[in-house]
Amino acid sequence: MAAESASAPALVSGNSVPATEDPAYRVFIDSLSYLQPDEVALIRDAYAFAEAAHRGQKRYSGEPYITHPLAVAGALAEWRMDAQAVIAALLHDVMEDTAVSKVEIARRFGKQVAELVDGLSKLDKIEFQSHQEAQAENFRKMLMAMARDLRVVLIKLADRLHNLQTMSHVRPDKRRRIATETLEIYAPIANRLGLNKLFRELQDLSFTLIHPMRARVIARALKAARGNRRELLSRILESVTGKMKEAGITAQVFGREKSIYSIYRKMEEKRLTFSQVLDIYGFRVVVKDVPTCYLALGALHSLYKPVPGKFKDYIAIPKVNGYQSLHTTLIGPYGTPVEVQIRTEEMHHVAQEGVASHWIYKDAEQSGADLQQKTHKWLQSLLELQSGTRDSTEFLEHVKTDLFPDEVYVFTPKGQIMELPRGATAVDFAYMVHTDIGNRCVAARINHELMPLRTELKNGDQVEVITAAHANPNPAWLGYVRTGRARSKIRHFLKTMQHEESAQLGENLLNQELQHLGVTPAEVPTASWEELVRDSGNRSMKEIYTDIGLGKRIAAVVARRLLAREGGAPATPPLSTVSIRGTEGMAIQLAPCCLPIPGDPIVGSIRKGQGLVVHAHDCPQIRKSRSSEPQKWIDVEWQPAEGKLFDARIRVTAKNARGVLAKMAAAIAEAGSNIENVSMEEKTPGLYTTLQFTLQVSNRVHLAQVMRSLRHIQEVVRIARVRGE
Could you point out which of 71, 209, 289, 523 has its C-alpha 20 to 30 Å from the C-alpha of 185? Predict the structure, then answer.
């Protein structure tokens, strides 16, 4: 967090002596007993360095600023992190808030410490258009540093926790903004890394800062409920402990209370009052090994009846953050639902501390290392997202999508388990397997049945993706995919395709303009192209073609520059006709206001960022623009193309009679057309109905055939093609 005082930072002196009489400093040094003496000495030096750098700076509370980095470093020491991480925590704000440079940190404490501090420093020196953009770019930088070294995010999370704990002197609007950002980004990251204890703390603190009254009310109700239910909870605890002994199972059994924020979420999502939230308390059974977990489960199910469908085995299929436990819900005394989690000691460590358990517990070293590998894989996927996304806000959106806590587990045809966020579709699955599979998918078999690509996947589904060599991503997929990976890959493909198609269109427009000026494209000297590319700031001819196709450059101006004839040509020369097939894709758009089809006289206009937009010659929407800005319009003609269907709208008025709609649908089908959409309006109640059809036809002649077929229906009294939206 940036320094909270306008005071100028003191000059740094490596010989500064730390305030050894400060109790917080003494406790911190005592907590470093797990490190080597030479490492502790270096940490003492880092504290002196940070204290000197921040001297004179205050927090909003009036405390010396050094109390903040000391608290963050203390949290790292609790996780038994290495000396480099603890030093980086002490120095995490010096680059941002003082005159200390990365080079100086590297010289004093090593390159790795400097890299950690740099990854944590905000980008305050760059100007952004909005606070949201600045936050997105800061977050992007932190994630990239985190992908290189996981310790960056652990320091950042400890930093965020201490800031939330000491927010009482900060402005209310700033408190809410930081707390909201924590709920949306930092708490989900803690959860994704398996830091369950920290995750709950961040959630509860943020909720209390955003909704202080609601938090107080729930906390008061929870305290009262704790007293009211003490006897019931004691009875359940004794019964569970007794059953474990009876079954010969050595186990630790203890109660656990749900967090304030999780209770609030349940009340809000399910529209319950506090008294209706029955599962406020749960129990945890910790045993020695995995087989004993299942023995304990059997013993509990013989003690109380389990609730059907409420059993989850996260030991056989761990959560994506490494969490493992058996979950079951039992019907306890007086019909009270009782949630129980059963796990081993090692699983308990990982469940509480996640990736940090690798440093804290020697007995959790193996599972901690496995979790670190999983986390590394996730971080690599973030790097992949970053490489395909230039915009920071878009990147942040993709990452937020991937931070949903709930997962579904599905199987590939070969039995491999894939983890996806809840609500993920067959398209998300396809992109999870491989980018090429996602780009080429056309259908999916879910549990051996053909299903639409937008089908949401459920736990245990077996998914097989069907691909086609010439298939491409559909922009409509962006409306229902849930993973950041799928969204990023689809957007990247569509942008690339648009550029490819725009480059082709731009080349055609420029070539036709050169021919109109009496020069074939091959006659343009290479030196002229090189000079134009250099002067324009583009990197290649293709980029210039793309700019022309996207409407960022005018073909006539580019042609004259190539021929060095800007002064000698007429200002607005007549342009030659551009031929289109209507199948070019995103570089050429058929205007929705008039929906031209082959056979209609057409004109086009190059719009910046959109390419060539084609209208019907008599479209009322363009009448004014064509007369006032004729230079912006190009004559366009249809080039014959087989197989492409175009949307066309017709309005049909018919007598109300049984089966008339079925007759119309049959006539349209017999004429070789498809109905894309139909809407009805009763003109004269009981007598006539007007129907508007959106049909797919190949050209104007085909549309005429469809309309002729409809006219032969006795009940049809009027039919016309619709122009305009």
Answer: 71
